[in-house]
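Reviewer 2 asked us to include a model.

Predict the structure of this chain.
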Amino acid sequence: MVLITGGAGFIGSNFVLDWLANSDEPVVNLDALTYAGNLENLASLQGDVRHIFVKGSIGDFDLVAKLLADHQPRAVINFAAESHVDRSIHGPGEFIQTNIVGTFNLLEAVRAYWCGLQDDARAVFRFLHVSTDEVYGSLGTDDPPFAETNRYEPNSPYSASKAASDHLVRAYHHTYGLPVLTTNCSNNYGPFHFPEKLIPLVMLNALAGKPLPIYGDGQQVRDWLYVKDHCSAIRRVLEAGRVGETYNVGGWNEKPNLDVVHTLCNILDELRPRADGKPYAAQITYVKDRPGHDRRYAIDATKIERELGWRPSETFDTGIRKTVQWYLDNQPWVQNVTSGAYKQWVGKQYGGD
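Predicted model (structure tokens):
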């Protein structure tokens, strides 16, 4: 049994689905079902006794303690987080509560549980904390990619809150001996991605005939990681990672945002051409850059390859084509997720409908 937090969100739900596709080991899935948590992501598991869903927060110490006592998991994998930079700029309080206070309460419950385990169970138990490359700050054009030894220089309330959570996890290992593992990943993309982020937002707007908003000049560079590759990396770190270590997980795919948007437009031109015959790129529009927008992220994933033998299976070209096809094939999911609060958010952030 493993306990997964945030398992109804984008990365977490992909992980739950991949875990149960590759293993019969049951999962307890704890998720607060905030705006980005979506049980529709897990619809294929309905009736599957290996998946036990519990609605709740990692900040609820008593609930987490009860789940740990009742199910006796051999590992806790923490995906639960507020994760959108723009939202953290408009309202940082939720990010502090979930990412810092919530992680603290989760760690406290896990520490109490771990201390009460018998010797054999204590020896194999792991707490795996899933984090982001944004804790390292921003890179210059010619800087080497982020390595695990880079110092933390977070530039947004979101990345600062994740940096704090990483430090808490590290401290619980060094102070209490809690057997932790941390992963810091680059930008994920793929199925079930909530459409406030660049790739799903562009696809949805393109198909709806709306403007494709590009911050600033569109030359912000990100390293893109297909979400299912990220899932396989986490499984590998849980299986063989060295306790107390951090592993950077990247896709070896640095791309400027504008190039990503043009790639999406080209694929849509091929798979779902506009009725008027014009290219989707004609919908590109530039909007005012967000405050403190980091210019470049890039991950050096050498350590996880050298120590654990992991490399991504997908190139950006193969992964992005799979992603576009998934969104085209799953329009009911898209329609359900883009209602209500999401529409209000997009209107506030980018203007218009």
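The CA atoms of residues 263 and 317 lie 9 Å apart. The mean pLDDT is 93. We have added this to the supplementary material.
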